[in-house]
Specification:
Largest sheet of chain A: 7 strands, mixed
Largest interface: A-B, 34 and 34 residues
Structural class of chain A: alpha/beta
Oligomer: homodimer
Number of strands of chain A: 18
Number of helices of chain A: 10
Shape of chain A: globular
Amino acid sequence: VLALSFDGDALRLARDQPEPTAGPGEAVVAVLRAGICSTDVEITRGYLGFRGTPGHEWVGRVIAAPDAPALVGTRVVGEINYACGRCTMCTAGMDRHCPTRRVCGIVGADGAFAERLCIPAAQLHRVPDDVPDRAAVFVEPLAAAFAVLEQVPDVAGRRAIILGDGKLGILVAQVLRAAGADVLLSGRHARKLDVARSLGVTVGTPLAGADLVVDASGSPDGLATAVALARPRGIVVMKTTVAAEHRLDLAPAVVNEVSLVGSRCGRFAPAIAALAAGRVAVEPLIDAEYPLADGLAAFERARTRGVLKVLLAVSR
Amino acid sequence: VLALSFDGDALRLARDQPEPTAGPGEAVVAVLRAGICSTDVEITRGYLGFRGTPGHEWVGRVIAAPDAPALVGTRVVGEINYACGRCTMCTAGMDRHCPTRRVCGIVGADGAFAERLCIPAAQLHRVPDDVPDRAAVFVEPLAAAFAVLEQVPDVAGRRAIILGDGKLGILVAQVLRAAGADVLLSGRHARKLDVARSLGVTVGTPLAGADLVVDASGSPDGLATAVALARPRGIVVMKTTVAAEHRLDLAPAVVNEVSLVGSRCGRFAPAIAALAAGRVAVEPLIDAEYPLADGLAAFERARTRGVLKVLLAVSR
């Protein structure tokens, strides 16, 4: 089958990857569409030392599931952390932090930039018929945006600032607004800010004193800015994983007793429900779609400054 | 009256400071004893640009209080943040974060390294008779240790690591242990670790996976160590205000969804109650006591590596 593959040196198009077969508890999915995430771009630069097929944002159709035959033929998305299910973290309900987890297309498991994906069937969620493929492919990043609500309860009526006009920033802005927060998004790209505005997100220059600041800037400077914008005892959600070191003076965070909350992945269910109910719009975030065979060009496009989401159309 | 005074250049002993008089709502206190804090040492190096008499850890006897005559003659300690009482922060119960606050001996208000201290009477707390002066002088730093319990509820049964064998670290260790946490203190000074051990605090080399890590190391490296020791979704309490920049990679905090909580001052009431009940011991933390007239020598001693608390005996 056709797949993109990273060998530690370069991303290549592999035309003759073996057809995967489903082991115990596994399913094989025909990928319909997949999204290229900034993490995928980082992976092609060596992030986490991943080798194989990247891709963790996808929608597909189940073509084999020996232990879950009812799934065959259904359209699905998949949670990306494949946990052991038995360790302390897993039994405490924190399977996304299982120390021996594999992560789809990121750690120890091939991902979705391929015609076929093999995945533990327990990871799969059915996609409602009224959520099109081009929206379903956003379930994973949207779940990461919803994670903010898991970690910061009671955002209704709070003043929230989102730093960063990228895909994640715009998703977080929509999620917080839908939850009743008073949201302002701050960014540096005129075109991305236009997209945010078109989605009804308030855009502008933030003033200090916010209850909640989400750093989705992707920049090493974002965190210091976020801390400066938070009110005393306010909350900063850290959504940025920068490969470089942060250099910042955290004394203001101590003096103002600000909480900095690391935030990564979220549950899929609220994201699927929000897309089905139309509470979050994602179509305006899509800048381009390429067939999988043009995947290298798609990555070039995704690496370009100012570009939002680039999709791969894999099969129908 | 006699006072230590910092003029921006050096700490000096001033023998002829004017006797303060109590304005509306104020009290004048005869300082009995005062403690030298690391912040005081930082102030003599230029921290926060403070000018005047430092000293925010003290116990004294009220000698004048025109608007609160019942206080005269009582033995008291004083909360250090003098808030406006009217702004958004104050009315939200966060007076310690009042943006126009003065802070005793730290920001805009003379402190307690003097024979007399003038302070808003509302800041004062009576000291129970069974708490001696040498213990009462620890109310302020002990309140800062209790702040951890305000910010991290439910420490009972949790595995907690304290980084730093200084005064604050040893106080935090005692507070967390009294609250039912499973505490390990980590430090680098054999003698200070002996003091901690003598107080029943478990001392050793920490293993990763702690529910709670308190960085009281006073070192720019402490925070990265603390993040590495916290379990996924664990909490790091930042007690260190380092003048220098931190250099750290916060990606592990994001991936592990660790919360970093800035923590500064705390309420006095639980600290006074703990000292009165003997739940926290402070006498072993005292390394030396100097008369105020030898205050410069006391500061020299307080600056010495490996020294715990140095007290000033001001009057009787």
